[in-house]
């Protein structure tokens, strides 16, 4: 059976709210087994026979576990371990060409097409033409400047959970003619869904059994047991032990490592009761970061950065979720078909699928398929695109309207551009830009295949906007990023992102965001919005960038994204305080929603950009302003003042506030505030902050007086706007 014909089963995704160490321990070893049958006996045996901690170690702090004394696993040097021994992540064979993996990728992520190509290679002869449409984004080109971040590292695609069994979503009103059709569809799908349910029930039974076994063998759940998890303070008790310790550094016992990770989580979450005498929280935290780094194969630097985003148990859920692929999702191209029709055709071809959830009317989650989805006649005809569910979100937040003029600043390979065009029903105009020429070619391929007719592709460094062209109604900046949200898809992120990347990328992102803001027409009758998104979960690439933009451009304000789910953005993080409105931004996590990690922020431009802005690349970055805020910490008075300075709590206060801030800004820049006749904010149109993001509604929304496609004319930035609409 060729790869393309393999079944790629997709279990029903379960959002994991909280990590249960005692459950996961067993599951983890099973995962290892699944991935590498040859390891099965060994690991399995170890889990069942080895105690959580070896019994030899003698220490006052050790507590009896199942009648034995616990022994701490030797502390491991993560770097050493990562170098010398196969980590858990490496042993699970994720890099092996597993059909499930290749099908998990989506077209709007880097390198996705490469994997699909191999599928097509195995497809029947007549379908080989599919390669023409799919060889678009396997290129690894970078921007010319060596010092620029690696532009091709961003794998933007990710996919979304369709929801749990109880709340199985139904097809939306717009694409179902009636309940009869739905019934037919469900009946046709029933075999696949039943199989899926059976698998889930079996898995739950297995987990329950594992939990029972676990409690028997380790006494986890018995509160009196204090885990002894950190190496003895005085060092080893014997030579024999030293040897054992050395050996374990070379060949870490994954089950033991795992066990210690679980134990440390327990300690950190109930520190006063479970901590060992003389050990600080920092000791435990350092230990768990070292262990996570070794167990999952992350650089210690990144493991630490990611660990601190969550509570200890949630962090573990996050790392765990990164070990499993997200579900495969396709987006119906409503320019060519309806979701119901597409679903029916694909079901007839042997595809098991269902709508991804009530929040989307165009997404279908695929559980199983008899055919390569990148080579069906419907695919070739552009009836759908393989697209991560999380990739829908920024476009839904942007909510482009018919006849508007929109810019997608970093567009290749075009998953979001083509969705924008579909929401706009091929009216108005979308400028789809990407700095990478080769990737831009892939963008053109997708645009053609999906029948998009309102889009102009261009190839600029987006920091050159709005010098290239400005005055847009809406701008999407799906920024190049570190990809810490898509580790399940690209495990190389675990080790190849350095501290330097987390300085360079935010710098670029800030420049791009300023350019995005400056490219929007604040006088737009229907729009005036900017959406910033990344497939990264780090604060410096998200809230840090947004905060910077708010400070640099007091003429924008954060507004609700309109997205119906997602965790609120941080208003404070490890001593940094952000604008209060930051909670309007949305964070998405794999362990929480079974989507790739993502971030979405929406701004409304309420006044003109500062005179003289217009080339974000050359504009000086005022990092100090952000740093200034940090020093006082979250509760500092100064921080309050600073953050409040750019905050609009009441709409009616906007005009005054904007004017004041603009004057202050101009004075700071040495510009006479009276030189600019435009009164910031006074012409602000009355608009709802909360936009409806339902694509159907977006498509059907009442429009202003905008008529046809606006011409490809240079509109000077924020000058009294005379462009013809
Ligand atoms: C996250 S991907 C975009 C994915 C795309 N929005 C989609 O949905 O298919 C980021 C893109 O930014 C592009 N890029 C990087 N630096 C850029 C720059 N300075 N100007 C414009 N595009 C840039 C990269 O080539 C890459 O295609």
UniProtKB/TrEMBL annotation:
Its main location: nucleus. Gene3D superfamilies: Sun protein, domain 3, Vaccinia Virus protein VP39. Keywords: Methyltransferase, Nucleus, Ribosome biogenesis, RNA-binding, S-adenosyl-L-methionine, Transferase. Residues 28-47, 670-689, 716-725 have a biased composition (Basic and acidic residues). This is Nucleolar protein 2. Pfam families: Methyltr_RsmB-F. It is found in: Nucleus, Nucleolus. InterPro entries: MeTrfase_RsmB-F_NOP2_cat, MeTrfase_RsmB-F_NOP2_dom, Nop2p, RCMT, RCMT_NOP2, RsmB/NOL1/NOP2-like_CS, SAM-dependent_MTases_sf. CDD domains: AdoMet_MTases. S-adenosyl-L-methionine binds at residues 410-416, 434, 461, 478. Belongs to the class I-like SAM-binding methyltransferase superfamily. RsmB/NOP family. One of its GO terms (biological process) is maturation of LSU-rRNA from tricistronic rRNA transcript (SSU-rRNA, 5.8S rRNA, LSU-rRNA). The keyword Methyltransferase applies. GO terms for cellular component: nucleolus; preribosome, large subunit precursor. The keyword Methyltransferase applies. GO terms for molecular function: RNA binding; rRNA (cytosine-C5-)-methyltransferase activity. It comes from Dactylellina haptotyla (strain CBS 200.50).
